[in-house]
Design brief:
about 35% helix, alpha+beta, binds magnesium ion, binds adenosine-5'-triphosphate, Rossmann fold
């Protein structure tokens, strides 16, 4: 049934889904610009896939024993044709689907990145939302361990560019399927011996996906899980070599790392390298970025065997960490604010402002109330100067009657040392020439 809100009802956003207001969007834009810059230097190209995908993509791709598929997906039936659809909870399956569908790796490897909203039905709390944004990158068609290392070096360099400190890099190897199978047997035997210590989730996972028990957040199970058989000791020579190469390359590139033998990641498709960038500054929501190699996913989704490495980063969490470290840029302010005492000068004012904007000057125009029959409606100079000041502009452009009579506008500095900031008069006709003097350097 479709509920109708009555006219007076106040509507608000869905729980766990946030508005990003102008006071924050400058931070997002700065983050996104920084990302685009770094991605370009590594040869990553942007890909934009749909937000809604067939439910089967995530059931198969993300894995039907993951938290995501078991309990976090927003799924629905298309009312018109009954198709089972899901709001994407992550985007690796979407990117791989697109790569298969468009044969993107036909001519060799492709490095792709995306930024956009993901949806998971989780309990909202700091750093955990129902609509959240991920930056992610996928390197498709590369089997060499240097691409695993490159992925981690890239994230590290992005964090450095953003100025982030206070994070660490943990990694592990999940080997290849045969090694995981042997480890799985050992795990099941071990967990069966500790059956009475397993919580309900773990009991259930014992038969479906025992590896995931290692990922438990239940404090009561930590000691038992710590003593469980480690996948690392089941790795053969070539898996160990893969891991060693990654370690060596990270060392060479100055990325500090540690091996966490219990790091398994919450998704089913990984093999060999898995990694997380973690901070202790954000409480329980401390994983900033997670990823790894997923050589099996293309086949699971019906494509040709194609090796791949990728990662996803929670943008809200990174911005939150930047905020706690006072690393976010200040809100943008206009270069200039136009003071307009008389509405009949608006045509000449607005054409001058157009010229300035064409030169890249950011100028905000005083905007008055609606016209009344009582004549001048622009408001007093005093109130306009007040607005100019609170806009944060560095200059006021005063389009007064006296100035305009001389074909000029007065430029008055609003910031800095008042003694050095005398008003100067400049000809309107020369706006292109003096525009540059207003721009922030
Ligand atoms: P967590 O263990 O915190 O639930 P996850 O293993 O489910 O994370 P991934 O699926 O690997 O996370 O997603 C990659 C990143 O996306 C996470 O490291 C995190 O920064 C971010 N992320 C995941 N879920 C959320 C969420 N509900 N709200 C905000 N950010 C999230
Ligand atoms: Mg999760």
């Amino acid at each position: 049934m479709v509920e109708k809100a009555s006219k007076a009802d106040k509507l608000s956003a869905i729980k766990g889904m946030n508005d990003i207001l102008p006071s924050q969007s400058a931070h997002w834009e700065w983050f996104e610009e920084t990302v685009r810059g770094v991605m370009a230097t590594y040869g990553y190209r942007n890909i934009r896939t749909p937000i809604v995908e067939p439910t089967a993509l995530f059931v198969r791709g993300t894995g039907d024993t993951t938290d995501i598929v078991e309990k976090e997906m927003y799924s629905f039936e298309d009312r018109l044709n009954g198709e089972h659809l899901t709001l994407r909870p992550e985007n690796t399956p979407g990117v791989v689907r697109a790569a298969i569908e468009h044969n993107l790796t036909y001519e060799g490897g492709k490095r792709l990145f995306y930024m956009g909203p993901m949806f998971r039905h989780e309990r909202p709390q700091r750093g955990r939302y129902r609509q959240f944004y991920q930056l992610g990158a996928e390197a498709l068609g590369f089997s060499g361990s240097e691409v695993d290392a490159e992925a981690m070096v890239l994230v590290h360099q992005l964090f450095e560019k953003l100025g982030l400190k206070q994070f660490r890099v943990e990694m592990n190897s999940l080997g290849v399927p045969a090694e995981r199978l042997a480890h799985r047997q050992a795990l099941i035997t071990y967990f069966e011996q500790h059956r009475n210590e397993l919580d309900a989730d773990a009991q259930r996972r014992l038969l479906t996906n025992p590896l995931r028990i290692l990922d438990t957040k239940n404090p009561a199970m930590q000691d038992m899980v710590k003593a469980a058989p480690q996948l690392l000791s089941f790795l053969g020579e070539s898996s160990l070599k893969h891991l060693d190469t990654v370690k060596g390359l990270l060392d060479a590139c100055g990325v500090a790392w540690s091996v966490n033998p219990r790091l398994v990641r919450g998704l089913d498709y990984y093999s060999h390298t898995v990694f997380e960038f973690i901070t202790d500054e954000l409480g329980a929501q401390g994983t900033l970025c997670g990823g790894g190699r997923y050589d099996g996913l293309f086949e699971i989704l019906g494509g040709k065997p194609t090796p791949a490495v990728g990662w996803g980063m929670g943008i809200e969490r990174v911005l939150e960490l930047l905020k706690t470290q006072s690393l976010l840029p200040a809100e943008p302010t206009p270069d200039a604010f136009a003071i307009i005492p008389h509405s009949d000068s608006l045509p000449v004012v607005m054409t001058t402002l157009q010229t300035l904007r064409a030169q890249g000057v950011c100028v905000q125009m005083h905007a008055a109330g609606a016209a009344t029959s009582e004549g001048e409606r622009m408001g007093s100079m005093k109130s306009q100067f007040k607005k100019a000041d609170s806009s944060g502009a560095r200059f006021a452009l005063v389009f007064g009657a006296d100035e305009l009579a001389q074909g000029c506008v007065a430029i008055k500095a609003l910031r800095g040392d008042p003694a050095q900031n005398q008003q100067r008069l400049v000809p309107l006709a020369d706006a292109v020439r003096w525009a540059a003097s207003l721009r922030q350097v």
